[in-house]
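Predict structure. Chain length: 210.
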Amino acid sequence: MKKYIEKLHFITHDIPQLSHVEQTQLACEAGAKWIQYRCLTKTEEELLNEIHEVSSICDDWGATLIVTNHVHLKGKADIQGFHIEDMDADFIALRRQLGEEVTIGGSSNTIEGLIRLWEEGADYAGFGPFGVTITKPNVAPMLGITGYAKGLSALKKLNIDFPVLAVGGVTLHDVTALMQTGIFGIAASAAINQADDLRDAYEAFYTKLL
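Prediction complete.
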């Protein structure tokens, strides 16, 4: 089942100045249609309480809510999908567990990983890191523009039509060059939620993708 995938994924993160709920509200006010809630620091009760608030905002604004990992929360909140960061995860098993209606995204830092995600039925992939990111430790080589061009070219040669998003250290300045590689879209966190004005930053990213 082919899913709708937005071209700009906004990823919430644990930051001192704004809660996940506040980040979601501001992003949705700026026009966000895809919120990826990424919180790996709370208890299940705290997660659910916050996700209920986040999902309510997403419902009000017509945004898709994706939760990073935490697949055990399926059915406990209004969640449309999950993004799995474990690059060794079995997506065939995840699809059986979560069902066809749920959107499932994965992460990869290699072309081989992208091909495996496509073969195992993921709906989209985050491919990175593009550059230096403060959101997560850089544990893989940075891809840069050349890495994305090479990756997308390899998929094209195999006739693989798969939404691949650049992630990890992407700034507004990088968007145009990245889109010219054939990438489907962009996933951003710090470049938006740690900007002086989150709404302005989101709108600037979105405008670049039009």
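Summary: Strands lie at 8-11, 34-37, 64-68, 81-84, 103-108, 124-127, 164-167, 185-188.
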